[in-house]
Amino acid sequence: MPEDSRARQRTGTGVGLLLTLVLAAVLLTALPDDEGRPEGCAPRAVGSWAADDGLTGEFARYGDDASRTDDWTGGDGTHSVRLPDGRLLWLFSDTYLGQVYGPPNPAGESFAWRDTTAPLVRNSAVVMREGRLESTLPAPLFPNPSPDQWRWPVAARVEPRSPGSPEQVLRVLLWVRTAGAAPWVFGVPTATEVATLSLPDLRVESVVKVLDQQAVPDPSRRVLFGTTLVTEGGWTYVFGGDDGQAASRPASRAYAARVPEGGLGDPAAWEYWDGSEWTSRARPAAVLGDGRRTGVGSAFSVARRDGTYVLFTMAAGTRGLTTVTSYWACSPTGPWHGPARDLTPALPEGQVAAYNPQIHPELGDGGRLVLSYDVNWLEPTAAAAQLNRNVSLYRPRFVTLRLERTD
């Protein structure tokens, strides 16, 4: 969430390969003393976890279903939101539509496959009811702003149409990217937008730009918000990141904004953390990372449990494309502490990468959290062929985990 971004050639590699540029991220800080912590906040880390074969299998079932040729067969940038009527809406960035065949594939391997004519769109949305995926909304759900720009949906929430309104709408955060030259082969970060969708029919009513970054001369310093959000005390806290790693810096930075409930679609309602206070001026200061020794990928995820904020991101170093780690804080603005224990979820064989760990709070309970991670072929020149050869390489996978206190 990006772990991050790009201007994508239409070969079908997906948001994921961009994300490999910004996956490695670490926050190395000392644990605080108990004195001074808010009540309920305590160090927390993953205590146990297991593969969620049921959810992973449901996306495989739906993607392999050949009864339609205009629906989702694979995608990344996985986010979800619970709708008031109980349905779960899954949002994806670059998405394959069309027909899936086999197995076996043309090489005689035991993989379901797609041919090279399969449509590829920049975003999609899939509806789940009572644990079963049932339909894909007309795709792309959010059309490109211009021929050389596109929109990737990220975090979303249902909120009042305006503060205090009895009517609810769905708000979806969007990243706008513009085609660019190297090193911006996956797109130049351009703006954060918010789409408003009516309920229950999920019709896109409007798209509003809340933070335009085109005036920031260094693209690696531009901040896109929406990789994850947390609601607390009448506020929606929205996290974002920059593209520092695309400019060959070791780490990207993380940032925080907040919006009163019902105000996501109002640019004037947004406030940004400037390092000492919340301000309406769009000059955010990093809450994590110095761009060199510490940092976080821009597609991280944050959950709040019992007064503690827990952040999930890909681990740094040689394990960065295989291992998820976590950090904790007592406030969205930090200080953040970690890294904590790692988890290394299952990956298919081959040159594959895991990225974009996202928590889905609507699927958890009490101490149980559901986390998804995206999978993609690591080598860009071979990615399109590999994703068509084996369709399972470009679908989300899931684990269920439990947090425990570590003090």
Outline the biggest β-sheet: 5 strands, antiparallel
The amount of beta strand, in percent, is 35-45%
Q: From N to C, what is the helix and strand string?
A: HEHEEEEEEEEEEEEEEEEEEEEEHE
Number of strands: 23
Strand order of the largest sheet: 13-14-15-16-17
Structural class: mainly beta
Overall form = globular
- What is the CA-atom radius of gyration, in angstroms? 20 Å
CATH topology: Tachylectin-2, Chain A
Number of helices: 3
Number of domains in the coordinates?
Answer: 1
Which CATH architecture would you pick? 5 Propeller
Average pLDDT works out at 87
Share of helix, binned:
under 10%
How far apart the termini lie comes to 29 Å
CATH C-level name: Mainly Beta
Description:
The protein is mainly beta. The protein has a single domain, classed as Tachylectin-2, Chain A, CATH 2.115.10.20. The chain is 7% helix and 37% strand. The chain is built from 3 helices and 23 strands. It has helices at residues 15-19, 53-64, 380-389, and strands at 44-51, 74-75, 79-82, 88-92, 95-96, 120-121, 124-129, 132-136, 149-160, 168-178, 188-197, 204-212, 224-232, 235-241, 254-260, 271-273, 278-279, 301-305, 308-314, 324-329, 352-359, 368-377, 397-405. The strands form 6 sheets. The chain has a 5-stranded antiparallel β-sheet, with no helix packed on it. A hairpin with a 6-residue loop joins β11 and β12. It starts with 14 loop residues before the first helix and ends with a strand.
